[in-house]
Each structure stands twice: as structure tokens, then as C-alpha cells.
Amino acid sequence: MMRIGFVGLGVMGTPMAGHLAAAGHELFLYRGRDGLPGTHCGSAAEAAAEAEVVILMLPDTPDVERALFGDQGVAEGIKPGSLVIDMSSISPTATKDFAQRLEGCDYLDAPVSGGEVGAQQATLTIMVGGEPAAFERAKPLFETLGKNITLIGPTGAGQTAKVANQIVVGLTIEAVAEALLFAEKAGADPGVVREALMGGFAQSRVLELHGQRMVDQTFDPGFRIRLHRKDLKLAIEAAAELDIALPNTAGTQQLMNAAIADGDGDLDHSALHKTLRREQTGGPRS
Ligand code: NAD
Known about the structure:
Helices cover about 55% and strands about 15% of the residues. The protein contains 13 helices and 9 strands. It has helices at about 15-20, 45-50, 60-70, 75, 90-100, 115-120, 130-145, 155-185, 190-195, 205-215, 225-240, 245-260, 270-280; strands at about 5, 25-30, 40, 55, 85, 105-110, 110-115, 125-130, 145-155. Nicotinamide-adenine-dinucleotide binds near residues 11, 31, 44 and 88.
């Protein structure tokens, strides 16, 4: 059993920490919530000082930098030889920098896919970057949290895989939103169209889950549009560094900008359907 510092107890982190506690690990929680078993600490440094493994599950790159290197951050408390696992979805480039700055510790980037449901059911897909020995050390913890666990390559490679995942999911949501809006405006019942399409080549998890949310017009998060835009921003920035064109990623990011401008940034990403309808028809703004 391991002593684990857990920093970032939101939609994803809370059920993940719950599974680790249920598996018998001793948890040191920062910004802990009542109801989670473990010791509630006053800072990330305090949680790190008690632990041999520190897991981060934070929104964005600046949040991870602050939690690691800010005042009372992980770097102030961590013991040499400890393992830091960043499961947030953040910049691959910044990840390499963070791993270097945490001298004397192992570092893995291990972002996830599978959403809140995957976190609750411990069925997350986990994409890992780092040294094979560190991966082996973390494997029992990953197996408590997920099912499809892959060491992609060196530090940053897990985050790169996650950005690729977010391109596929974001563009598929946009495509399903266009298709269901088209069906509706052309006079077909979008719910029936969705069901029919589930039997053919258009079938996908996004059509199944997010398509249903679009049919029902229920957009509770889920995965916030604001967080998905962050992931596509990472893709667009990398595209400029790599001199490659990602035209549809850019277009989908623009639609997310419009959603956020309309006050829908904290809705589930399936709400791109709502944004698209408004853009196309000049419907009411929230
Ligand atoms: P969230 O906003 O619900 O949770 C983040 C938590 O971190 C919050 O509780 C916040 O208070 C806390 N926090 C922020 N800064 C902190 C700090 N310095 N110290 C301690 N705690 C701090 O976000 P989430 O939905 O749980 O997502 C977390 C990460 O996982 C993001 O990078 C997201 O892109 C990724 N992700 C989310 C989903 C999803 O469906 N929600 C799916 C896959 C990946």
C-alpha cells in the first residue's frame, strides 16, 4: 500500500481519490472535500511531504505550475525519490519543463479519457509519458483507476496522445451537432435519425452519448466547453510549432469561443449543438 498525496479534487479527482482510498492506500488530500477518507492537508507541500507518490488532477497548465512550484507547492515538500504523476490534461511542452525542474523525483504525465463516468467507474483510458521504470512503479495505481493503460513514450508523450484524443472527440461532437441540426431543420426527428445512424458507419460513442444529450437538450457537465477549448488551444499552438495545418480543429475552437462568449463555457461540450443552432439561425442568446 502506498502513501499518496492527491492535489485537485474536482469532478475527476474526487472519484479517483475515492477508488485509491477504497483500494487501501493512505491519502493526503489538498483542497480536500468532506466525505473523502484521508488526511486533509493545508497545502500541496504538506500533502507531498507525507507521501511517496503525488497525483495531480488540476484544470490547466498554470494550475499545475502553481501547485508544483508556487508558494507552498509540491516542490517545497517533496522527498527525493518520490514519484509525481500529473493526470491533468496540459501542455506537452510545459510537461517536459516541469519534469526537469523536479530534480531527484520520478515524473509521469498520465492524462485520461473517459470522462466523469470513467472516473466514477474506474474505467479510464490512461495515456502515459515517462520512463518505463516509473511507469511500472505507478502501474498498480493506474490499474485501480482505469482499464486501457498505455505507456506512449517519453515525458510529454502522454499529453500529446491526449491532445490527439481531444481533436477526435471535439471534431466528432461538432460533426454530430451539424448532422442533428441539419436533420431537424430538414424536417426529420433528430432522435429517430440518431437511432438510425447508430446502426451504420456513423456510429460512435459521441453519437451515442453526446448525440442523446443534443436530442434531449440537456447539457449539464460532464466535460466543460471551457476545458475542451483549452485542449484544442494546445493542438493549435503545437500546429504552429510543427508547421502543420489543423483546419477543422481551428474551426471547432472558434465555435467553442462563440459558446464561451455566449456564457455557455461551463456547459457540457455537447452544447456546441446549441451554439451552432444560434450561429445558424440567430436564435436567442442566453
Ligand atoms: P475541475 O475543475 O472539476 O477540478 C479541478 C479541481 O482542482 C478543482 O476542485 C479546483 O478547486 C482544484 N484546484 C485548482 N487549483 C488548485 C491548486 N493549486 N491546488 C489544489 N487544488 C486546486 O476539473 P475536472 O473536470 O476534474 O478536470 C481536471 C483535469 O482532467 C482537466 O485537465 C481536464 O481537462 C481533465 N479531464 C476532465 C474530464 C472530464 O470529463 N471532466 C475528462 C478527461 C480529462
